[in-house]
Write a structure and sequence with these properties.
4 strands, 9% strand, two-stranded parallel ribbon, mainly alpha
Length: 214
């Protein structure tokens, strides 16, 4: 990635702030996994028994400093979803680079349910445990989406990608691409433990409302 004047002026989180953020990630993630493991098991069985294909969907995403990693989710689409993606790009309900469809024909019936309640994202807790993701941060994008980013948008990669973040509690897919980038960069510039805690608490009503969950 080319280093620019904007990038040089970008303030990185302090070591203390990073340590506190990692401690929060581990504490909350371990507690949630301990509490929700029966739910994870039930969801895995539901996915396996209602459509052909693996229980988990692993996909390459762009993480901290532009480094790719494998993100894990419960599979919410039919097995041929990736092969059908290119044909659906022009039908996206969201302006900008990211494909978002309110009525995506690739989504299974169980997939619609787990997406509505963001349950498909729960396996990313394991990405948080390994340090590839954080509980709070910009959502990790696909490499082909990142390749089309305007230069300033790469600043969102100056922090770890997150399971939830500012745009998720602000409307998720109903938020435009440009607004999402602005929110992510603003978060990356001001990330801190207090803001992370506030976003985590706001995530609960955001998930329950279902706004932008498709």
């Amino acid at each position: 990635m080319t280093v620019t004047t904007t990038d040089i002026a970008f303030a990185r989180p302090s070591p203390t702030s990073l340590s506190a953020k990692r401690a929060l990630d581990l504490a909350v993630t371990l507690a949630v996994l301990l509490l929700l493991w029966p739910v994870l098991l039930i969801l895995a069985l539901a996915v396996a028994m209602t459509s052909r294909g693996p229980v988990f969907f692993c996909q390459t995403r762009v993480g901290l400093n532009g480094v790719p990693f494998r993100m894990i989710k419960f599979r919410s689409m039919y097995a041929d979803a990736e092969a059908r993606r290119a044909a659906l790009v022009a039908q996206s309900d969201r302006e900008g680079i990211c494909l978002k469809l309110r009525h995506d024909p690739r989504v299974t019936p169980v997939g619609r349910f787990i997406r509505r309640w963001s349950l498909d994202e729960l396996p990313q807790l394991f990405n948080v445990l390994t340090g590839e993701m954080s509980l709070v941060g910009p959502r990790p994008a696909l490499p082909e989406e990142v390749a089309a980013y305007p230069e300033h948008a790469h600043l969102r990669h100056r922090v770890k990608p997150g399971l939830t973040g500012v745009w998720q509690v602000s409307g998720r897919a109903d938020v435009s691409f440009d607004d999402m980038i602005d929110m992510d960069i603003a978060y990356a510039r001001t990330a801190g433990i207090r803001r992370d805690l506030a976003i985590l608490f706001l995530t609960i009503p955001a998930v329950l409302s279902g706004r932008g969950a498709y």
